[in-house]
Write a structure and sequence with these properties.
Chain lengths: 575, 225
């Protein structure tokens, strides 16, 4: 807001300087004749204000505002001098301001077009040299006492030489900058090309105006030509920038008519920062992974004003915002190679380099969102699979046993069973209970909730048919962690141990639990036959790896055929 | 006493299979001519042994069958290849979804019972008898579940408690006389209740006991459109 206020104040100050200065210089009676000149001059602060107001983070608007202010101060100074104000300091202010105005419009405005940045690092000396030349021009001219309206005045030769040299260098640099601009125009792609073309025409008109003005100073011009030259000098650049804005969406600002009332509004596309911060909020509010991808696609679509945008994952999942029709106009791989973002055609006009930069910026959070979406999906799937497994176990195990028990009891009732049969039924009921207990332990062992990680791991390993040792620091035994951490670590050990028994045919298993440097680590090593880690994917451990990932930890499996297997799991914990 | 009904029992759980066999044989009304552990063996046993009725578990893992629907799919195969064989499907699921899956090609000769009915010999024998003669039975608990579902959907029919009892008995495929016996009512009172139910559900009354289950099911069906 503050920057917008400053932009407004600068623009108003410039306008005031221009209006009052021109008035004073021209004298009251000729005010109406000067009106076109005033209006044309006002374009510069106007355009500068528009850019600085809508895109305060882009330097270009401020450069234009500075030029406008120089013009305003210069005109005011000229006006005050013409209406008889004493020379001296005023001369300096006026002269420097006008030199600054010419320097800015001839060098900085074309050089920094379109976004206020140098075209390349090669140009980095130019602003400094130009700055010195402008200062020399302004101060030298003022000190020399040169007055284009009074050629008989006393002239300080040294100062005049300095001023002339400054002006000369300014012209040279302006020529070089103009040449650079022409080159950029020739090399630019379609949408930018039109913007550069405007600018080239604007600078050319300005130069023509400048040449005509110089001719006038040497007494070679008609009043009409001089007027046109003056208008070209102050008006062509802002006019060119204005056209670039209105017709060619310079800096993504454009005009339109909104609503039924015909008032002109200008609209601006969100900046990269705005899109990113909106997206961040949207993603935070969206717990569903697929929905997150939808938000992402929607953000790209809105940010770039596309007919459609799609996010496609490496696994083929595709979420589209809008109606995907026709080929993508632009495709951007998402950071990390997890997928890519596709852009449909723009509502109006082609995609620009600016759009590509926005998309590049979006590809970063997109990668993160996709990554976390993948993790969440895998965790949810694993959870579902685990639930189904438990349901199947209950259905095929305990539930069936109870059905058998009911059938047995019914048989006993109908036949008048003896003691043997009742004892048999009791045994069946006990077995059912034992199985139920085993099942419950598989879901969440009571030793884990009651006794903690070490206790539960020891309990799990004490029932194994091979020699198993569990080592842990005594301090760890009494340590309790969150349910998530204890669960993830316990089931990782449990799975690793089960793998060692099932697949590795291990004769001895060693489990180590330790805590150091903010990490809780579980290592399970066996002396089994091992496997080629590059060829084998272990599903159970992959699920647990995701679980550990979600806790900020990790899992590594090291194995070689014939050399046993070593599983290392860790999670960050508070000391 | 008439000839015992010849049955084959299929269940992947040994204890359930044997418990059911012994229970049925003890009744004297049913002869178990074979017991099998999966759907493939069941089809084979039906071909070889030519039973009157098959009693099968709904879920028997193994083979090239739809997982979880082995019993139902086998039932359909049996009924289409051997229309004279009745099928009683025993299920752990009170969810009507599975019952409708069983009855999707018609109700005749099919019974859908919850597995705990093995603790109620009369119920089980009733269902076996019904499907043996081409009738159909649906577990009253499933019907109750369907009625409750309609209540939840705001389609409450305002059946009286007595009418709900009668509806439950109708689901067993029972005749009015059998319902009267079971509920200790006069036959005329049962008839009155049956008429009231059919009127409230907007169904055409049918004297044919076999069709009644189908009518009730069709009405309570999964797709009320």
């Amino acid at each position: 807001m503050t920057s917008r206020l400053v932009a407004g104040l600068l623009a108003v100050a410039s306008a005031a300087g221009i209006v009052v200065g021109t008035w004073l210089a021209g004298g009251m009676p000729s005010a109406s004749a000067l009106l076109p000149y005033i209006l044309v001059s006002l374009m510069l602060p106007g355009v500068g204000w528009l850019l600085a107001y809508r895109r305060p983070e882009v330097r270009y608007g401020w450069v234009l505002l500075a030029a406008g202010l120089s013009l305003g101060v210069g005109m005011l100074g000229t006006g005050l001098t013409a209406s008889g104000a004493p020379a001296g300091l005023l001369d300096y202010v006026k002269s420097v301001a006008l030199a600054l105005f010419y320097g800015l419009t001839w060098i900085y405005v074309p050089l920094l077009f379109p976004d206020g940045r140098l075209p390349s690092r090669r140009w980095r000396a130019v602003p400094w040299i130009a700055g010195i030349a402008i200062a020399a021009h302004g101060i030298g001219t003022a000190k020399a006492g040169l007055d284009p309206y009074d050629s008989t005045a006393q002239v300080d030769l040294v100062a005049a030489l300095v001023g002339g040299a400054g002006q000369f260098v300014t012209w040279i640099i302006a020529g070089i900058v103009f040449w650079g601009l022409v080159l950029r125009w020739r090399r630019s792609e379609r949408p930018e090309r039109a913007q550069y073309a405007c600018m080239v025409a604007g600078v050319a008109a300005t130069v023509a105006g400048g040449v005509l003005t110089v001719l006038f100073i040497f007494g070679l011009g008609t009043p009409l030509l001089t007027g046109v030259a003056g208008l070209a000098l102050v008006g062509s650049l802002p006019a060119a920038i204005g056209v670039a804005i209105v017709r060619h969406r310079l800096l993504d600002i454009r005009f339109g008519i909104r609503g039924s009332r015909l008032h002109l509004v200008f609209d601006v596309r969100p900046t990269v920062g705005e899109v990113l911060s909106d997206l961040g909020t949207a993603l935070e509010d969206t717990p569903e992974p697929v929905e997150q991808l939808g938000r992402l696609a929607a953000a790209v679509r809105a940010g770039l004003e596309l007919r459609w945008a799609a996010v496609t994952l490496a696994d083929g999942t595709r979420v589209v915002s809008g109606r995907a029709e026709g080929p993508a106009a632009l495709t951007m791989p998402v950071r990390g190679g997890l997928g890519h973002i596709e852009c449909g055609p723009r509502d109006a006009g082609p995609l620009t380099g600016q759009d590509r930069r926005l998309l590049e910026a979006l590809a970063v959070p997109a990668g993160l969102a996709i990554q976390s979406a993948g993790l969440v999906t895998r965790l949810v799937n694993a959870q579902e699979a685990e639930r189904r497994r438990i349901e199947r176990n209950i259905h095929d195990g305990v539930q069936q046993q109870l059905v058998a028990l009911i059938a047995g009891i019914e048989l006993a009732r109908a036949t008048g069973a003896g003691a043997d049969m009742l004892a048999h039924l009791r045994e069946q009921a006990r077995q059912t209970l034992a199985d139920l207990r085993e099942l419950a332990a598989g879901i969440h062992p009571s030793s884990l909730s009651q006794g903690g990680l070490v206790e539960a791991v020891e309990e799990r390993c004490s029932r194994l048919p091979v020699r198993t040792t569990v080592t842990s620091a005594p301090a760890l035994r009494s340590r309790r962690f969150t349910d998530e951490i204890e669960g993830a670590m316990y089931f990782t050990v449990s799975e690793a141990v089960a793998n060692a028994l099932k697949h590795a045919e291990a004769a001895a298993i060693e489990v180590r639990l330790s805590q150091a440097d903010g990490r809780l680590t579980a290592a399970v090593a066996d002396d089994g036959k091992g496997f080629d880690a590059s060829l084998t994917r272990r599903r159970g451990l992959a699920t647990l790896s995701d679980r550990l990932d979600a806790l900020g930890g990790g899992l590594s499996v090291g194995s070689e055929p014939g050399k046993g297997t070593r599983v290392n799991a860790w999670v960050p914990v508070d000391e | 006493m008439s000839e015992p009904i010849r049955t084959v029992v299929a269940d992947d759980h040994y204890l359930v299979r044997e418990g059911t066999r012994r229970l049925l044989e003890m009744s004297g009304e049913v002869e178990v001519v074979g017991t099998v552990g999966n759907a493939d063996e069941l089809l084979d046993a039906v071909r070889r042994l030519g039973p009157d009725v098959v009693i099968t578990d709904i879920r028997m893992p193994g083979g090239e069958w739809r997982p979880g629907f082995e019993g139902i799919d086998a039932a359909h195969r049996i009924r289409s290849a051997h229309p004279g064989v009745g099928v009683v499907v025993l299920s752990q699921f009170a969810d009507a979804l599975f019952a409708f899956e069983l009855f999707k090609h018609g109700t005749e000769g099919y019974a859908y019972l919850l597995k705990d009915r093995v603790g109620d010999l009369d119920e089980l024998l009733g269902a076996i008898g019904a499907v043996a003669s081409g009738g159909s039975v649906i577990d009253p608990k499933v019907v109750e579940g369907l009625l409750a579902r309609r209540d939840v959907r705001g389609q409450r029919e305002e059946l009286t408690g007595r009418e709900r009892d009668v509806l439950r008995e109708m689901a067993h495929g029972r005749s009015n006389a059998a319902i009267a016996r079971a509920l200790h009512l006069s036959i005329s009172s049962v008839e009155k209740n049956v008429n009231a139910i059919f009127t409230k559900l907007g169904l055409e009354n049918s004297g044919d006991v076999h069709r009644r289950v189908a009518a009730v099911l069709a009405y309570l069906g999964p797709d009320p459109s």
